[in-house]
Amino acid sequence: MANKSLILPDTQDLLEKIHFDNKKGKIWLDEQRMLLIHSAVMGLLRKELIETLGIERAKGFLTRFGYHSGMRDAELAKKLRPDMPDEAAFMVGPQLHAIEGMVKAIPTVMDFDIEKGEFYAEFDWLNSHEVDAHIANYGTSSAPVCWTLCGYASGFSTYFMKRQILYKETQCAGAGAEYCKIIGKPTEEWEDSAETEKYLLPDPIIEELLALQQEVTELKDHFRSTESEEDVLLNSVGHSGAFKNTCHLIKKAAKSKVTVLLQGETGVGKEAVAKGLHTNSDRLKHPFIAVNCACIPPDLIEAELFGVEKGAYTGATQSREGKFERANNGTIFLDEVIELSPRAQASLLRVLQEGELERVGDIRTRKVDVRVVAATNENLEIAVKEGRFRADLFYRLNVYPIHVPPLRDRTEDIPLLCEHFLKKYSAMYSKKDSGITDKAMQTLIQYKWPGNIRELENMIERGVILVDNNQKIDMASLFPSLSEPTHPLNIINNLGQLSEKSQPDETDETMHVEEMLGENFSLEALETQLINKAMDLTNNNISKAARKLGLTRPALAYRLKMLQESE
Q1: How does 118-129 read in b/e, with b if 16+ C-beta sit within 10 Å?
Q2: Architecture in CATH for domain 12-205
């Protein structure tokens, strides 16, 4: 192999990606959360693994630990140095190894061609933290001890080269050498590759634990009332208190015939909850019919719900059954029930009270047995007072009300929901599910979610489409096309819009974003100032203030309510 002239790139671009957020107790390397821990503590962990699992299993565990760490950094390398030559991009791994305090890696030979799949590299290692830890606990070893570091190098090079690369330590300071030395090349070029590669394979202990876990999962599934997707969604995607309370109420109602009223904002998943109720009821084998009342013209709503007889009106060329007859013995979900016309409200009340209906244009009464689940994102009590909804129908629907919590009240469920949607859309678009970066996940959890679960699902789908295979979904893939202008990333941009429209004083005009982002900067305080300023400029006219801020009126009204409650 030819020894190329090795000119190492400057590490400043990597150092600039490190951010210490001491207020929140987090360290970031680009969008990945990092940890700063004592090397001695890592040494104690290493010692405990050796004494608990034995040296061979401990070596395998730490090798795999390093391997996955290297894979993560290789993914980052592709992002941080996309336009540099391959040699410079590859050096992200060795340079990060030094920045992270693991070892000083000096390349002595580096010859590879990604397109041809050819690879050979030699590195000298100085100041290995694993050497220090091993000697401190066990003294000089008879064999190389830099297991995590070799795993890291193998994982990094494997990801970078898109083929399995293995490194071996040919000399080790932990075994008495002056310094450590490693050689890396494709697996098949090692005569004893099977011996080295075995440390990357799952440990039998892990396999046994996974087998036990699978048995537990199968036992749980055995006792479920159904294995349908709706049941899984209801019972699994969420562990917050608010979500569990909703599930508890749904399960209580499922075995009865009671009419259920689901209340909650748009996009919280009311239809999924209604399906969960149907799935857990004894009506499972019968139809589940979902109707969005807002999508049907008022003059056709009765015919759609209750059926129509031939000749009942112009265009009724044949008799047909309505949604209620189709849902007989099953469940009907009436979304946006507040949109029903007065006549349809009266007909619905009759179905609920008497269990019978008449088709439009018919005089014959038909009996139906249908569980009604109604839903609305408006307050029906207010609608009753305003004369838009029948009081007697409201009282009949409100026998068993269930509030479906908004996503901002169940933020601990966001990682589970993301995982659910990632699997769904990764399969749909034939992408490998590599997850979401730590920074992007943190922002998803902090976001206010005006569109709730529907908005989250759409965002994850967009992220899966935009991200390359084997890449984590980052903030750039999730948020650029986000339509909600109050997202934290857009608040500062809104400041500029507000300044142009509201003609602030000279001090505001000369304010720079760089000056704002000082040590005491608070995004929440800035948002509060923007809202208060917009309300002052418009004499507390919410609609005008919303336009100045680039918001919808409901979005601003919600934020004003939250500000009042926090005072």
Answers
A1: ebbbbbbbeebb
A2: 2-Layer Sandwich (3.30)
